[in-house]
Here is the input.
Amino acid sequence: MLVSRAIALLALCATTLAVQSIVVKGSDLVNAVTGNRFQLLGVAYQPGGSSGYNPGSGIDPLSDGTVCLRDAALMQRLGVNAIRVYNVDPDLNHDMCASIFNAVGIYMLIDVNSPLAGESIDRGAPWTTYTSSYLNRTFAVVEAFKSYENTLLFFAGNEVINDPASGGVVPPYMRAVIRDLKNYVAKHSKRSIPVGYSAADVRTILIDTWNYLQCTLTGSSTDPSRADLFALNSYSWCGASSFTTSSYDVLVSDFSSTSVPVFFSEYGCNKPSPRVFTEVPVIYGPLMTPVLSGGMVYEYSEEPAEYGLVQINSNGSAQLLVDYDTLQKQFNTLNVTYLQGLTAQNVSATPPKCTSSLITTSGFSSNFTIPDVPAGAQTLIDNGISPAPSGKMVPVTASKVSQVVQQSNGDIMQNLAITILADDQSNNPNGASPTSSGASPSATKKKNGGETLKSSLSVLLGVASFAVVCTSFL
Here is the structure.
């Protein structure tokens, strides 16, 4: 009983300890504490879609704790360990949502751009939008999310290079944005947060885009204009496809020499529908895990494009869709304990030198002269933006979902709640059946009997000293 109360106290207070830092080492994402390779089992999370992003509304996907609690409970049950959020308003408070996702062991992948004018790079004329004002906004996103322990990375761009024409003009500017973001993070964040790029899976320019962004201008992997990671939005596996039919084999071959982590920033073709997600055991199987670091299913909420796992209604209620059930079944086939317990192997991958010989497509930029920082932007990098938004972890005291949530068969889910994780755990598939109302989450840390006893004693000994730290959050 004493141990249970101690654990409950720690779970309540230690919302900043639910996840461990993930760092980039060579071509692997690595748990900074264990040294194990980290695989993303994520979902894209943008309720309302990009068209629903409206800073004037006073809300964004991570501003309403009640909504995030509902969705975190369903994601924890599903077994995901990460979300990708495309459009955020840096001026809003994201403390509760970030803390809720952290408490259940879910990392956040944050895009710094938005679809609004002046808040992204124009692929047709990037020089017109690469401005101090644009960078001020991207730095504001960094400021808003840098202090959340579960912020895993920032995306400097999403499909800005999506055809040969944009490939001819955008690449130098994308490296410039990456450079500026990385320099800002280095100066103003207490920890290193990777900055990467999310590419369109347009095969004629995909490898050129990757090579352009992963190569080094300085001869060192620390080149600030070099992407820390490379992701792609890929929909080549449709229905009951295969490793070769989907051309996943080509991707593995093409990226086999990567010097940065590569993963799917979106996947999940929705033709035919409903989806069967037979790519899941392949993405996380022996054919792909040596090269790729998992991926993010597109997408959590049902939008007009019909990729959703969950239908969210205007009154806040929600209903699971058949795709949620199917994805959960596929996730439950994975041996995640083994998958997340592998020692990182590719930590010393060396980036290629930036030369025109890396580029194979006619018209794709082979100009590696990176634009100078726009007028006024270096002052922002050196001194920080002002006023700067800020975020901090806060205690998560509520766990039960207040909204009505239905299973895909229409039954109302009973006692739906989050389970706050302890011991620096991240969320994983838990073996729950699609028709169960809830289940205790699985986490990357697994203990045997002796370790459990040792952990229990450690908890008891640590409660008193930790309570002092806890008060700083209350």
